[in-house]
Amino acid sequence: MTIFIDNKSGSPIYDQIYSQIKSQIISGELSENEMLPSIRGLAKDLKISFVTTKRAYDELEKDGFIYTIQAKGCYVAPKNVELLREENLRKVEEHIDEIVKLAATCNLTNDDIIEMLRFALKEEEQ
Question: N or C, which end of the chain has less CB nearby within 10 Å?
């Protein structure tokens, strides 16, 4: 597992850890039931506070991406198909919001956007 902390990012460190681990779980880089580094070990490796790492792990567990076995460690949770679907739907919605904003700056009509989407879908089928 690889985690990069960007001190110049406006994103809190715990959120950077959360996002990167979550992304690695969704992509399959981290497999189901794979053991994660200990909270203290990851904090030491990243040279950050134990509390920061614990917060990231707590959020991942709350959201169903990892589970903890007392005195054993934290593990990647089995993939919840519905959870992954919701995550992907959220990403699609974010992209659509961005498309709508960009389209407005270009004075595109709804029909223009729909035609562009149809074209992209047709290209994907080929």
Answer: C
CB 108, CB 50: distance < 8 Å: no
First to last CA, the chain: 36
- Whole-prediction pTM: 0.69
Written as six digits, the tokens of 98 are 């961005």
Of 74, 59, 72, the closest CA to residue 20 belongs to 59
Strand partners, 35: 75
Closest CA to 17 of 44, 69, 54, 64: 54
Measured from the Cβ of residue 119, the count of other Cβ atoms closer than 10 Å reads 10
pLDDT band, residue 105 (cuts 50/70/90): very high
Q: Which amino acid is at 110?
A: N
What is the H or E stretch that residue 100 is in?
helix 81-105
Q: Two tokens at 4?
A: 């990069």
